[in-house]
Specification:
274 residues, alpha+beta, Glucose Permease (Domain IIA), 4 helices
Length: 274
C-alpha cells in the first residue's frame, strides 16, 4: 500500500477573499496547513508500517499452521480425533485468520481516511502558499518607487541650459564665506520658456527672496519643486500641471530649481534628465 503524497494545487478562495485577509492571518493559515500536512505524512508512514507488520504476522501464522498440519490446512482439520474436535479446530483457525484480516482491513480504512484528509489539507496548504505568493508580489510592487521617486534621473529640465551653479555648499565670490545652496541654477536667457519638471499641483506663486518670481509645485509623497528667477508666471495656485507645462518665462541669465522631500533639500542634478 502506497499513500500518495503529491500536492493537488486546487485554489478554493476567491481573490476578493484573499484581499480581505490580514497578512498575519495568511501566515497563520500557511503555518497551520504545513503543520497539519506534516502530521498526516507521519500518520501515513506509521500506517504503512502497521500494515506491513500485520501482513508479516499473517504470513507467519499461515506458515505455522501449514507446518502444524504437516502440509496443509485440510490435513490439520482432518487429523482431529472426533467431529467435535474438528469443528473446534476449524473455528480456532477461522478466528485467528479473521482477526488478522480485520486488523489489516481496519488499517486500510484508516489509510483511506488519511488519504482523503491529506488531499484536503494539501489543498489548504496550496491555497495558503498561493496567497503568500500574491502577498509577496503585492509587497514587491508596493516597494517599487511610485510618483516622483519613479522618475529619478528622468525629470524634465526646466530649461535645457547647462549647469551654472551646483547644489550644496559653495564659497561666496565676494565674502569668501562658505554658503549653502538648496537648489541649483541652469543657464538660460531672458524670455525663454520655463517648464514644469513633473506633473503636480501648483501650491504657491509669488516672490522668492533674492530670486524673483517663483512657482512651487506639489508632486505628492512630500515632494516639492521650486522654480524661480522668472520674469513672468503663466500658472496660478491650485492649478494642475503636466510634465513640461510652461510655468512662465525666464528672467535670465539663469533659472533656479529646487527639489525637496518632506522639507529636506535634494540635489536636483541626480533627478533631472541629462
Amino acid at each position: 500500500m502506497r499513500l500518495a503524497l503529491a500536492f493537488t494545487l486546487t485554489l478554493t478562495c476567491t481573490q476578493a477573499a484573499h484581499a480581505s485577509r490580514p497578512l498575519d492571518a495568511l501566515d497563520a493559515d500557511k503555518s497551520a496547513a504545513e503543520s497539519e500536512v506534516k502530521d498526516l505524512e507521519r500518520r501515513a508512514r506509521a500506517l504503512d508500517e502497521q500494515a506491513n507488520e500485520r501482513r508479516d504476522r499473517l504470513k507467519r501464522r499461515v506458515r505455522a499452521l501449514y507446518k502444524l498440519s504437516s502440509g496443509g490446512y485440510l490435513r490439520l482439520l482432518v487429523r482431529a480425533d472426533d467431529p467435535g474436535e474438528l469443528v473446534a479446530r476449524h473455528e480456532a483457525v477461522r478466528r485467528v485468520l479473521k482477526r488478522d484480516l480485520d486488523e489489516l482491513e481496519a488499517i486500510r480504512e484508516e489509510s483511506r481516511a488519511v488519504d482523503a484528509d491529506h488531499a484536503r489539507r494539501s489543498n489548504a496548504l496550496a491555497d495558503s502558499l498561493e496567497r503568500s505568493h500574491e502577498r509577496a508580489v503585492a509587497q514587491s510592487e508596493n516597494a517599487r518607487p511610485a510618483g516622483l521617486a519613479a522618475r529619478r534621473g528622468h525629470l524634465a529640465r526646466p530649461v535645457p541650459g547647462a549647469l551654472a551653479a551646483p547644489f550644496g555648499v559653495y564659497k561666496d565670490a565676494d565674502t569668501k564665506l562658505p554658503l549653502s545652496r538648496r537648489g541649483l541654477e541652469l543657464s538660460s536667457h531672458r524670455g525663454e520658456p520655463v517648464r514644469a519638471s513633473a506633473p503636480g499641483t501648483v501650491r504657491w506663486v509669488g516672490e522668492v527672496a533674492g530670486l524673483g518670481a517663483g512657482v512651487m509645485i506639489d508632486h505628492g509623497d512630500g515632494y516639492l519643486t521650486l522654480t524661480a528667477r522668472l520674469r513672468e508666471v503663466s500658472v496660478e495656485g491650485g492649478e494642475t500641471v503636466a510634465a513640461g507645462a510652461v510655468l512662465g518665462a525666464s528672467l535670465g541669465p539663469t533659472v533656479y530649481f529646487e527639489l525637496s522631500q518632506a522639507g529636506t533639500p535634494l540635489d536636483p542634478a541626480t533627478w533631472l534628465a541629462r
